[in-house]
Amino acid sequence: MALFGRPSEQDEARAAAYRDWLLRRNPYAIASTVLGVFSLTHLGALWVDGFAAIVLGVIALRQLSRGDVAGPTEGRGLAWLGMVTAALSICIAIVLYQWA
Q1: What are the pLDDT digits (tens) for 1-58?
Q2: How many CA atoms lie within 13 A of 75 on its CB side?
Q3: N or C: lower Cβ tally within 10 Å for the chain?
Q4: What would the pLDDT profile of 53-77 be if each residue is shown by its tens digit?
Q5: Interatomic CA distance for residues 64 and 6, integer angstroms
Q6: How many Cα neighbours within 13 Å face the side chain of 79?
């Protein structure tokens, strides 16, 4: 879908590729990544999103490791990314709170 003007075939193909990529990923892994990156942007000042990212990442990894769940079968990297960024933001928050 083009931002300005009419969409071209290339724009439609790109949109379909992004849609297919997204549908193959585990929704908990995507949520973990979003929350983990968000927690990193405010340096862990709110602990809730960091812990939620870790929990959702673990849930995603457990679902993906079972393999018998119908639906998305990819997203290990996204789950790990969410958990690592959330853990990093929590560590930064601990260091900053000790200095305050």
Answers
A1: 566 778 788 888 998 998 998 888 999 999 999 999 999 888 877 889 999 999 999 9
A2: 31
A3: C
A4: 999 999 999 999 987 666 678 899 9
A5: 39
A6: 20
Overall pTM > 0.85: no
- Measure the CA–CA gap between 32 and 80, rounded to whole angstroms: 8
Inter-residue long-range contacts of 30-35, CB under 8 Å, 24+ positions, other chains counted: 30/75, 30/78, 31/56, 31/82, 32/56, 32/57, 32/60, 32/78, 32/79, 32/81, 32/82, 32/83, 32/86, 33/78, 33/79, 33/81, 33/82, 33/85, 34/82, 35/82, 35/86
In angstroms, rounded to a whole number, what is the distance separating the alpha carbons of residues 90 and 87?
Answer: 5
Report the C-alpha gap between 76 and 74 in whole angstroms: 6
- Beta-bridge mates of residue 86: none
* Residue found by looking up tokens 């200095």 in the block: 99
